[in-house]
Design goal:
Layout: E1 15-17, H1 39-51, E2 53-57, H2 78-81, H3 91-99, H4 112-121, E3 126-132, H5 164-174, E4 178-184, H6 213-233, E5 239-243, H7 271-281, E6 286-289, E7 305-307, E8 316-320, H8 336-348, E9 352-356, H9 367-383, E10 390-398, E11 401-406, E12 411-416, E13 428-432, E14 441-444, E15 452-456, E16 459-463, E17 475-480
Parallel strand pairs: 2-3, 2-9, 3-4, 4-5, 5-6, 8-9
Antiparallel strand pairs: 1-7, 10-11, 11-12, 12-17, 13-16, 14-17, 15-16
Helix pairs in contact: 6-7, 8-9
């Protein structure tokens, strides 16, 4: 992920930060959105907007150290990644020891069916998996590098499920999920990106591609080849989620965004060539070239934050269940109530919620993750009709009430939150609706008893029965028009 806390002038005009402390971040959302012209992409994007709730997974050799993904390798980010002395006294010793994590990575408890079963019950409907993070370690069987999970250097390579990307994608696809491949454009292990002739200074390429065009051309081809492998050898893929927005054409830099001002050289990898290739391999695939405006950023991706207002373009908030995108021992996992509240806020503003869960070095989630997923499942069983295949509708959010509507416009859903430690529904719920709205019937999801209600002007008042004690996390009123 892209960990940076900055105030910028972007599409994400203001946002609610979800988590505090070291791992808080706001991802800059690029301006200049272009609606896809390919009808297959447009259809896929419309279907993706129906799904609302997805699973993100950051997983790699770094899980063995319980650190922030690949970022400790980057000299400019040492201030917040804090390399530990036991992992290396010097920078180069640290890098050597980090890369040697390949030789001990053996997640023998890896069981993607267990994950798919748990998250499916919780209502998640698509998955985005880190096939390669910035460190360059491939969690798939690439032919371009031996720095991969299927290398003989990696103990897990002898496991029949060694190609974890293949196993995850095939398992989740069988369960009806849309499949997303996260891929880092920068590769800090590649000698054609961080050339060993020069020391790395920051996250960017450490030489000038215009001075060494042959070397940069090799990196472009390497990237093209890996993306060709992923999109041609791993079954149907619905989303290509490209991270590392500093690898971009120089003319696309937004000077209002501080991290983009650190980009000193041209880093174009020819996204037209890549995009056309992946669309040939996967017709209709959604491409998310994060923060790079134009035809290859099919939706925008605020990170660890929820926009305060509805956005006019397709969007997705990627937010961690714990504090970190990668596995951290004893992570601080959010409560089921906090997760439900976040989901409601996101869908009322027209977005999708991509919740990150990080597997540990043994290949499984923390036990508390399954507890949270079970708690979410119980709420979803009762309220899913107000969540999925919905769209935003004015007034979006008023006081403690949040609104969605069915795609056909025949149903209005009104969520009530109170954001306390534990949700308690009041005896009466009163909220505004357009005066021209004509309710045909009204029910409170999860309550079987008849509910008394009346509409006066632009206000609907709902009297909850004693059964309201059964309402957890949020009350959902569903109005048929």
């Amino acid at each position: 992920m892209f960990l940076r806390l900055k105030k910028t002038k972007t599409l994400l005009l203001s946002s609610v930060i979800i988590s505090a402390g070291l791992f808080s971040q706001v991802h800059d959302v690029s301006r200049g959105y272009e609606k896809p012209s390919d009808p297959l992409v447009a259809r896929n994007l419309e279907q993706w907007q129906d799904l609302k709730f997805g699973l993100f997974m950051h997983w790699g050799t770094y899980s063995q150290w319980g650190i922030v993904e690949s970022w400790s390798l980057c000299p400019e980010d040492e201030s917040w990644t804090r390399r530990k002395l036991e992992h290396g006294k010097s920078y180069y010793e640290y890098v050597k020891n980090y890369e040697n994590l390949q030789t001990t990575f053996n997640p023998v408890r890896f069981n993607p069916q267990k994950w798919a079963d748990a998250v499916k019950r919780a209502g998640m409907k698509y998955v985005v998996f880190t096939t390669k993070h910035h460190d360059g370690f491939a969690m798939f069987d690439t032919r371009q590098s031996d720095y991969k999970i299927t290398s003989s250097k990696t103990p897990f390579s002898r496991n029949p499920k060694a190609d974890v990307t293949k196993e995850i994608f095939s398992t989740f696809r069988k369960e009806g999920f849309k499949i997303g491949a996260y891929f880092s454009k920068p590769d800090w292990h590649s000698d054609d990106y961080w050339w060993s002739y020069f020391p790395p200074k920051d996250r960017n390429v450490n030489y000038d591609p215009e001075k060494y065009p042959e070397k940069w051309e090799k990196f472009k081809q390497f990237t093209f080849n890996q993306l060709n492998e992923i999109t041609s050898g791993y079954g149907k893929i619905d989303i290509l989620w490209l991270d590392g927005g500093w690898v971009r054409p120089f003319h696309t830099i937004d000077p209002a965004v501080e991290w983009q001002r650190t980009i000193r050289v041209e880093q174009s990898i020819d996204m037209d060539k890549i995009g056309n290739m992946v669309r040939k391999n996967q017709p209709g695939i959604i491409v998310v070239d994060r923060t790079v405006p134009g035809k290859w950023e099919n939706y925008v991706t605020p990170e660890q934050a929820v926009p305060e207002t509805a956005l006019s373009v397709p969007w997705e908030s990627c937010i961690t269940m714990g504090d970190s995108f990668s596995y951290i021992p004893n992570d601080n996992y959010k409560s089921a109530q906090k997760i439900i509240e976040t989901l409601v806020k996101i869908i009322s503003r027209g977005g999708n919620y991509l919740m990150n869960i990080a597997p540990g070095p043994d290949g499984d989630y923390d036990p508390v993750v399954y507890e949270r997923l079970n708690e979410i499942s119980a709420w979803m069983d009762k309220n899913q009709s107000a969540v999925f295949s919905t769209r935003s509708i004015a007034p979006y959010h008023e006081k403690d009430f949040y609104y969605t509507q069915s795609k056909d416009g025949h149903t209005l859903n009104v969520f009530h939150l109170n954001e306390r430690a534990e949700y308690h529904a009041p005896e009466t719920l009163a909220f505004t609706v357009p005066e021209t709205l004509h309710p045909k019937s009204l029910k409170v999801l999860g309550i079987s008893a008849n509910v008394r209600w009346e509409k006066k002007g632009n206000t609907i008042q709902v009297k909850l029965p004693e059964q309201k004690a059964d309402l957890k996390y949020a009350a959902v009123i569903q109005i048929t028009l």
